[in-house]
Design a protein that fits this description.
The complex is a heterodimer of chains A (428) and B (285). Chain A is α/β, with parallel strands linked by helices and 428 residues long. Chain A contains 20 helices and ten strands. Chain A is globular and about 70 Å long. Chain B is built from 14 helices and no strands. The longest helix of chain B has 35 residues. Classes of the chains: A alpha/beta (428), B mainly alpha (285). At the A-B interface, helix 3, strand 2, helix 4 and helix 15 of A face helix 3, helix 7, helix 12 and helix 13 of B.
């Protein structure tokens, strides 16, 4: 068969080839390779990123993942060391305001063209999108979402308390806790003793009382709101919750109390969606508990966002650039987000993913619809306890105050308000 | 003898010592028991309890099964990494420390006490402060992401301690011994090998125990300067315990902790005996 082509087509073709960005050309020429560092090394987190790596390899890529065991600090140390050594990973896990902070340390890849091609921006909650394009350009991509203020209810505890209504407002919640307490339950709230656990009690209380005030005080550090009546009411609610918690948990994770929760010796739990996976792996069934959006005084769901994301660091090697392109396409792919969330118990970042299928739990469906409602009503806010609302230094200063308040019951709500405002002032 | 063994004061001392020992050993007992219980059993009952079924499988999972992300090889490869770092770094830092300690204690030269002071200052520098300088050194030597890099770090950082210890030990050796050897024509290294080293076993064993334990248990440098399969055992242990999105793997964790602690435990048991022997050898002379 003779190959025919017009001169014009040939010219247009070569012009297009020249105009293609370097990475796109590289992609066709070399085998995509990706160096990734993340702190996801174990449990469902480890399983999910391993599955993502398999998909990457299926598409012809070379997947080089280096898990950094431990917590965020360890990963940051490693990232810093690699950047200083002139060898940043092509891609690393990073989330919240740290994305903006770190993008000033080393050059990142502009993902605008890829995001536009995938139509990604239209399906991401605006609060979340903003975090991933500091300076107006997409340099990182969110991968999965958790709500940190989901309310877990123990069915056995509900039966014991003869309650069948899922609490919607804090007043409902407090009534139910009182009912459980009156029925002989010593500690109606199942809790852990870690910093994020205490932080979650506070952010759930505050955002549930007023998402607008939460946004002003915690995310924008507005001085007036930081000393205002809503935050004082939030601390008062936290004190109530703390009085219903078992103080004998030390620094244990919340999972320590799961058995008492399922058995109905404890009735409620404020946790992120990850807790359903933990419950399932501990041998409990979805019939043992109900998951609902956390209490909200205006009765519309408030969604405290916690999203994991990948940031892309500039590399000159064509194979790494091709790997970055492939990775970005995978992360934004609805099928990949579905696979990832089904392993970890989160929900996809894309609001257009259908969660009616068999692979999803009721808890995930409720979380996804809460996100939709919250976006519609402007009630999505960023989690403080999980490093989404502020940079590390400020978060640490604020959580110090909160966790002390939870544990030391002699501190009054108004004192806590002053202390928090002072901590913010000091850390700014 | 018999009477003395049952004297009230003796009984009191035994009671006191055994109760202190029991308090110290209680966490170990919990760990050992948990290493023999399944995760489900621990999650559904409590952290403290007697195993219903003996879950020896925890040890198999800990040794060669559990996954750190894509790699499901248990702690075995990481134990090997730790050994490859700890053994040479312990030997190098101890030997260099012995020579340095010998030089600053038994040889007078200009600024010797200054040098000694500066070397021991290293003890007071927090680990985090040294991270960035080490990054630059490893980058320039091309040793980043290698076990050799870790050996270098631990050898050099260990010098502050090993020099301090050896110097404090050697300072008690009579200078006449050195003077006599010099009259016989022995030089710096001959005196070290022939006279000082044979006298040093107690302090060398203390130094080795300290260095070995310290390097084996180190986490920050191990996790920062190596990746994936190159990491030491502490990184694997943290990987096993730091998951927020999973039920705590107490059973496998406990088994892994016990396995990972064995080398240091053996060093203590083995070295401790020689330590006492070394001390008493001097006493009998």
């Amino acid at each position: 068969m003779p190959i025919t082509t017009t001169r014009r087509r040939l010219l247009a073709g070569s012009a297009a080839t020249l105009a293609l960005p370097a990475f796109a050309r590289a992609q066709s020429a070399v085998k995509p390779r990706l160096t990734v560092i993340s702190q996801w090394s174990a449990g469902s987190d480890g399983a999910a990123i391993t599955a993502l790596g398999k998909k990457f390899e299926e598409k012809g890529g070379v997947w080089q993942h280096s898990p950094v065991p431990g917590f965020t600090t360890e990963m940051m140390n490693k990232l810093r060391a690699q950047i200083i050594a002139g060898d940043p990973p092509a891609c690393s896990q990073l989330k919240g305001p740290e994305i903006a902070a770190w993008s000033k340390i080393a050059p990142t890849v502009n993902l605008d063209a890829l995001v536009a091609a995938a139509g990604y921006e239209k399906v991401v909650a605006p609060d979340l999108a903003r975090l991933h394009k500091p300076g107006g350009k997409w340099i990182s991509l969110p991968l999965q979402i958790y709500s940190t203020n989901m309310l877990f209810l123990s069915k056995r505890a509900m039966d014991k308390a003869k309650a069948d209504k899922i609490p919607v407002t804090w007043a409902d919640f407090n009534d139910l806790a009182e009912k459980m307490k009156a029925g002989g339950m010593a500690y109606p709230i199942a809790n852990g003793g870690t910093r994020p656990d205490d932080g979650q009690k506070f952010e759930a209380s505050f955002a549930g009382i007023s998402p607008a005030a939460y946004r002003a005080a915690i995310m924008n550090l507005d001085e007036k709101t930081l000393k205002g009546p809503e935050i004082k009411a939030a601390f008062a609610q936290v004190r109530k919750i703390a009085d219903w918690m078992d103080p004998n948990v030390g620094a244990q994770p919340y999972a320590t109390n799961l058995k008492r929760f399922v058995d109905g010796d404890m009735g409620m739990m404020i946790q992120g969606g990850w807790a359903q996976g933990v419950l399932r792996n501990a041998g409990f069934k979805f019939d043992d508990f109900i998951i609902a959006p956390g209490p909200s005084d205006n009765t519309k769901p408030v969604f405290l966002l916690n999203a994991d994301a990948f940031i892309f660091w500039q590399r000159s090697e064509p194979d790494l650039q091709a790997g970055q392109t492939l990775m970005a396409q995978l992360v934004m792919d609805p099928a990949i987000q579905t696979m990832y969330s089904q392993i970890t118990g989160s929900i996809p970042v894309r609001t257009d993913v259908d969660l009616s299928g068999a692979g999803w739990s009721d808890g995930q469906r409720r979380t996804a619809s809460a996100l939709k409602d919250a976006v519609a009503n402007n009630q999505t806010v960023l989690s403080l306890a999980h490093n989404m609302a502020q940079e590390n230094g400020l978060t640490a200063a604020m959580i110090d105050v909160i966790t002390e308040y939870v544990k030391n019951k002699t501190i009054k709500p108004e004192q806590a308000v002053t202390r928090l405002a002072e901590a913010v002032e000091g850390a700014r | 003898m018999r009477d003395r063994a049952f004297a009230p004061s003796r009984i009191f001392i035994y009671l006191l010592v055994s109760s202190i020992a029991a308090a110290y050993l209680a966490p170990l007992v919990v760990v050992v028991l948990n290493s023999l219980r399944t995760n489900e059993e621990i999650a559904q009952a409590s952290m403290i309890g007697w195993p219903k079924h003996w879950a020896w499988s925890n040890y198999i999972a800990a040794w060669s099964g559990f996954c750190v992300a894509e790699t499901c090889a248990g702690i075995r490869p990481y134990m090997l990494n730790s050994a490859l770092v700890t053994i040479p770094a312990t030997i190098f830092s101890t030997m260099l420390g012995a020579i340095a300690g010998y030089a600053v204690s038994l040889w007078r030269f200009r600024g010797d006490s200054w040098i000694y002071g500066i070397v021991t200052l290293g003890l007071f520098l927090p680990q985090q402060m040294r991270l960035l300088p080490w990054t630059v050194v490893l980058r320039d030597t091309g040793l980043i992401n290698t076990l050799t890099g870790l050996v270098l770090i631990h050898t050099i950082q260990g010098l502050s301690f090993t020099t301090l210890f050896c110097r404090n030990y050697y300072i008690a050796i009579p200078h006449e011994l050195i003077r006599a050897a010099r009259i016989d024509g022995a030089g710096f290294f001959r005196i070290f090998w022939r006279i000082i080293l044979p006298l040093s076993s107690p302090i060398l064993i203390v130094t080795v125990i300290w260095q070995f334990t310290h390097i084996w248990n180190e986490f920050l440098y191990g996790v920062t300067f190596t990746t994936g399969q190159q990491q030491p055992v502490t990184a694997a242990l943290i990987a096993l315990s730091a998951a927020i999105a999973d039920i705590p793997q107490h059973g496998v964790q406990s088994a892994a902790v016990i396995i990972a602690a064995l080398p240091t435990l053996l060093i203590y048991l083995f070295g401790g005996r020689y330590f006492v022997r070394g001390l008493t050898a001097g006493a009998i002379k």
